[in-house]
Input
Amino acid sequence: MPQSPVSARINICMTALRSPRLVGATSEDRGRQASTREATLLDLIRHQSSIGGIEAGARIARDLAPSIDLRGLKQSLDAMDQVPAAQRLGYVFDHLGLKKPAQQVEAWLEGRRTLLQPLELKLPIDETGPDVDRRWNIRYDARRLSWFEELA
Output
């Protein structure tokens, strides 16, 4: 006899806990560690097409910048080990004028092989742009990045 589906309810509450800076997920029984701000930011950049593009990720990066822990950023980069996401995040930090986080990402990338990556995912290859940022090995279209100026 097939089992009937089980219904469960989980409420997600984004709250800062004490050190380290964790984001909590709560259920009816107790709180659980879900992620750090730094890991969440990497995921948002990695899955940018699901959140409205790289611009949405950059806006969130700008908003989270004051609370980014550089040690936590390195730990998140180590845990995820996604060079293309790190390249994009470094580019975003750099173009937002966030020097320390950008330097942390650059230090993490040092010694790792970076391939030329488009800044924006889901764009046809001919629309990703002819411009290349050599520091991050990111291909972009400068005409599409005016929003960086308003964010910085």
Q: What stands out?
A: The radius of gyration is 18 Å.
